[in-house]
Design a protein that fits this description.
Elements (H helix, E strand, L loop, with lengths): L1 H24 L8 H4 L13 E5 L3 H17 L4 E6 L2 H10 L4 E5 L5 H11 L3 E5 L5 H9 L4 E4 L5 H7 L3 H9 L2
Helix pairs in contact: 3-4, 5-6
Length: 178
């Protein structure tokens, strides 16, 4: 089932570009940081230090990571912290609230080639998702690279649950590795 998703992701990539351009025109993407959504970082990491990647999609989820980021910083002083979010609003809010020891980047789109580019650039040592959306390519490709993956606050909306319950053979292998 994952192979079907990956194949469809590759096939739909041109349409995702068109959709993304539409979002840019509507102000739903940051034109100055659009490359981040395609897996090209605008910042670099210190490769001599371990990297803990925390992923949250929206404003509420991103704000909820602040106590976690503080504890991670206190307990893992040598680690670099990366927070990814997916919305322009969450980026603006977090720009005002993130401590200086946390790097922010926009989350990569859930296309295999984009996720691979992101993972090659950042090489996280640990991935922590704080979200209510599941991104199959992000989760599976992270796990395939042997990166420990945690899902915190893993709740699904009723709508998401109803979608995923029709594809248990697809989502079960991903969640069993978490």
């Amino acid at each position: 089932m994952l192979n079907i998703y990956r194949s469809l992701s590759w096939g739909f990539a041109p349409f995702v570009r068109i959709y993304f351009q539409s979002r840019l025109k509507k102000g739903k993407e940051d034109p100055l940081r659009a490359q981040e959504r395609w897996g090209y970082p605008s910042l670099t990491r210190d490769m001599k230090r371990p990297l803990i990647w925390v992923h949250a999609v929206s404003v509420g989820e991103a704000v909820s990571t602040l106590p976690l980021l503080k504890v991670l910083h206190e307990e893992c002083r040598d680690a670099q912290l990366l927070l990814t979010t997916a919305t322009v609003t969450s980026s603006k809010v977090m720009a005002k609230r993130l401590p200086p020891y946390v790097i922010h980047q926009f989350a990569p789109l859930d296309l295999p080639q984009v996720i691979n580019r992101f993972l090659e650039a950042w090489e996280p040592d640990l991935a922590i998702g704080v979200e209510s959306e599941l991104w199959p390519s992000m989760l599976t490709l992270t796990q395939e690279r042997g990166i420990p993956t945690l899902l915190l606050n893993g709740k699904l909306s009723e709508r998401s649950f109803n979608r995923w319950k029709w594809l248990p053979s697809f989502i079960s292998p991903i969640l069993k590795k978490m």
